[in-house]
Amino acid sequence: MMTFSSVLVANRGEIALRVMRTVHKQGMRCVAVYSDADALAPHVQFADEAVHIGASPAADSYLAGDRIIQAALAAGAEAIHPGYGFLSENADFARAVVAAGLVFIGPGPEAIEVMGDKAVSKRAMLAAGVPCVPGYQGEDQSDERLSQEAGAVGFPLMVKAAAGGGGRGMRLVQEVAGVAHAIRLARSEAQNAFGSGDLILERALTRPRHVEFQVFADQFGNVIHLGERDCSVQRRHQKVIEECPCPVMTPRLRERMGAAAVEAARAVNYQGAGTVEFLLDEAGEFYFLEMNTRLQVEHPVTEMVTGLDLVQMQLEVAQGLPLRLEQGQVALQGHAIEVRLYAEDPARDFLPSAGPVVLWSPPTGDGVRVDAGIVSGSEVSPYYDSMVAKIICRGDTRGQARQRLLRALDDTVLLGPASNRDFLLQALSHPSFARGEATTAFISEQYAGGFDEFLPSSADLAAAAVLHYVLTAKRNNSRSIAVPAELRNWCSTGDLMSVVHVECAGGARSLQIQTREVGTYQVSDKGAVSTVQVREIDAKQCRLIVDGRSWRARYQDTGDGSLYLSVAGAGQFCLVDVRSRASGGDSKDAGPLIRAPMHGLVMTLDVANGDPVELGTALLTLEAMKMQHVISAPLSGTVANVTAAVGSQVASGELLMEIASDEQST
């Protein structure tokens, strides 16, 4: 038996924190590693010790296995937990950890190797009698052989990278004419992403469910499963919503699928936590998809219905202890649903978002669990995956779990980067999901025309404008020599009228705010008139009465003209005071400063010094998180002091150019 009392967690974000909590609960010491981008990250602050391992790109830090092992040895750690992603399924890293005299908290490298190759793993599963999707996983990888086998497998057909996952190196082919093109694209993507162009072919199942089984095995040959998870709601083959148990599972089907999952683990002499993934068709037949040889992102739903701590079980198995329970002792109690909160923009085809977290306020309540890797003030980095948190809710029934999750999401505040919070609320509320009918085609079918982002109503804009007006007035008054209260908002010509020029959800508006009496305002917006009464405003939240109805919001005022809001029962948006932004800068003559909203590569520069621009004119394009983002002009004016250059790497907040407004030019 190999005992240890200190663990290095070779990961970052929410999974690093989640593992560390259990390490501490076991009375052990935990060591964090971090890149330049994560120097102030929550997981670094939480650990007993943290070791810097390199620059921000993952290849120079979290994927640098030798540096991680050196960090463990230097910090006196005796074991390494890889979390998920990065090196968690890298057989060479697992071997190197053991060779360094450390314990790798995961399966043996041989099991990782077999299950990490789709072709090899499928051959192993067929030999073990585990049902597999009809296809081709042979060693002959010539285009001619693949095209020939494609015709034999039939259509629709999936062409997949043998060495990878996550939707990369994967193409759906509907007819024979598209085979050659799909093979060429899939092979190129696979080679670039995984260093191997090997492919497999599989018959594409129409509208299947993605159902996976959590398995656990010890060093004594004991293998059990802890029930299933339905992970069918996906976008680009990335899971978005997961739940346990599967809505259509029956005791007989669970018995059959669970037995197949256990046999899959036995076939590769598995140890530790693993997940065997299946596709379940409409006829109730299931087929092996792949095995993830690590802890899954969605493991909390299993924990919430079994009452088990899967990380604790990993630590026990890694120390040579036998499994703490037998198959007959596993019981699923209630229902749990998890959503992944991503910093991404669903209205723009789920483009990743980066930048500072202006305000993060996670939900609380009965049956609510939040695993997060951010705090207010954190930076969502363009170097890593855009998932920032997981919100999980348990209930006695699926309906109760779903309702609790809806409430929890509505109470979740993530201001700063764009997020998929409102999309998740819509998806959970969709009738087909509520009925438990969602398949892997759910998002593509129900959101074929894209996702319509939340657009604030005239009442929302009126309330936000009044809040901004009041906060600005308070800030200005605090900077002024004492002004008597009776003179505030007073105007010699009658009720004080102010005009606020704002930009919200991509559109520019001019709102007129007229003070009627203390705490009451009338706001005109393109003919729509709203009466707003201020009831409560504190540092983070407010309650207003808009046209006789209560309006509540959490907010963050950045002080530079941006007001971020999360409106109760509605959505989240940002109100930008264009003139406040235009008056920013260190110099009285300087125009608004156009800064990089994230780390990125300047792909295009669409304007030059002296060019006139209108509000919304494309200024330049940044590439971050492998996506391209257009930076637009916040007002009309003339370009000045361009500092950006095509091909240059810029940091978040770095000055790109200035714009002299039209008012300054006249």
From TrEMBL:
<keyword id="KW-0547">Nucleotide-binding</keyword>
<keyword id="KW-0436">Ligase</keyword>
<dbReference type="InterPro" id="IPR050856">
    <property type="entry name" value="Biotin_carboxylase_complex"/>
</dbReference>
<feature type="domain" description="ATP-grasp">
    <location>
        <begin position="122"/>
        <end position="319"/>
    </location>
</feature>
<feature type="domain" description="Lipoyl-binding">
    <location>
        <begin position="584"/>
        <end position="660"/>
    </location>
</feature>
<dbReference type="Pfam" id="PF02785">
    <property type="entry name" value="Biotin_carb_C"/>
</dbReference>
<comment type="subunit">
    <text>Acetyl-CoA carboxylase is a heterohexamer of biotin carboxyl carrier protein, biotin carboxylase and the two subunits of carboxyl transferase in a 2:2 complex.</text>
</comment>
<keyword id="KW-0092">Biotin</keyword>
<dbReference type="GO" id="GO:0046872">
    <property type="term" value="F:metal ion binding"/>
</dbReference>
<dbReference type="InterPro" id="IPR011053">
    <property type="entry name" value="Single_hybrid_motif"/>
</dbReference>
<dbReference type="InterPro" id="IPR005479">
    <property type="entry name" value="CPAse_ATP-bd"/>
</dbReference>
<dbReference type="Pfam" id="PF00289">
    <property type="entry name" value="Biotin_carb_N"/>
</dbReference>
<keyword id="KW-0067">ATP-binding</keyword>
<dbReference type="InterPro" id="IPR000089">
    <property type="entry name" value="Biotin_lipoyl"/>
</dbReference>
<dbReference type="InterPro" id="IPR001882">
    <property type="entry name" value="Biotin_BS"/>
</dbReference>
<dbReference type="Pfam" id="PF00364">
    <property type="entry name" value="Biotin_lipoyl"/>
</dbReference>
<dbReference type="GO" id="GO:0005524">
    <property type="term" value="F:ATP binding"/>
</dbReference>
<dbReference type="InterPro" id="IPR011764">
    <property type="entry name" value="Biotin_carboxylation_dom"/>
</dbReference>
<keyword id="KW-0809">Transit peptide</keyword>
<dbReference type="GO" id="GO:0004075">
    <property type="term" value="F:biotin carboxylase activity"/>
</dbReference>
<dbReference type="InterPro" id="IPR005482">
    <property type="entry name" value="Biotin_COase_C"/>
</dbReference>
<comment type="function">
    <text>This protein is a component of the acetyl coenzyme A carboxylase complex; first, biotin carboxylase catalyzes the carboxylation of the carrier protein and then the transcarboxylase transfers the carboxyl group to form malonyl-CoA.</text>
</comment>
<feature type="domain" description="Biotin carboxylation">
    <location>
        <begin position="3"/>
        <end position="448"/>
    </location>
</feature>
<dbReference type="InterPro" id="IPR005481">
    <property type="entry name" value="BC-like_N"/>
</dbReference>
<dbReference type="Pfam" id="PF02786">
    <property type="entry name" value="CPSase_L_D2"/>
</dbReference>
<protein>
    <recommendedName>
        <fullName>Biotin carboxylase</fullName>
    </recommendedName>
</protein>
<dbReference type="InterPro" id="IPR016185">
    <property type="entry name" value="PreATP-grasp_dom_sf"/>
</dbReference>
<comment type="pathway">
    <text>Lipid metabolism; malonyl-CoA biosynthesis; malonyl-CoA from acetyl-CoA: step 1/1.</text>
</comment>
<dbReference type="InterPro" id="IPR011054">
    <property type="entry name" value="Rudment_hybrid_motif"/>
</dbReference>
<dbReference type="InterPro" id="IPR011761">
    <property type="entry name" value="ATP-grasp"/>
</dbReference>
